[in-house]
Amino acid sequence: MTTLILNGEERQVTSEPDTPLLYVLRDELELNGAKFGCGLGQCGACTVLVDGEPVFSCVTPVLLMNGRDIRTVEGLGTVAAPGPLQAAFIEEQAAQCGYCIAGMLLRAQALLVRVPDPQDDDILAALEPQLCRCGTHMRIIRAVKRAARTLSRAAEAVR
User: Fold this and answer.
1) What Pfam families does the annotation carry (predicted)?
2) Quick one: 15 and 68 in the same domain?
3) pTM attached to this predicted model
4) Per-residue pLDDT tens for 30-45?
């Protein structure tokens, strides 16, 4: 049995140790945000955050995740209360087919933790491993910048 800290909650999984994390998330835990794309760790549709860093879950065995902090797109917010990044992606209409969006959101989340006021080059570098064939790249960049402004205003309000 493997213990995951998934979206802030401890979860026990019974999948075989060599099972890719993506399959555990989708099949055992019924979290379908991360998608199967290439199965080779090349497209980014399966991206999740592990200890705050983007990871291709399709090539990551669940055995390596024991006790690790895993965040999926479901951990960013809900339909009723989307998180700042999700809200910005909605407002900027950054998703077209939506297949890559979970990975884009999680890579953007990791970026905003490291770089609260990212420039275009920062965003492009952070999102570079994610493949998107729909051509919404400019809207995605605008969405990340919008989320950064929202988070900055929220931080200022707390001070």
Assistant:
1) Fer2 (PF00111), Fer2_2 (PF01799)
2) yes
3) 0.94
4) 999 999 999 999 999 9
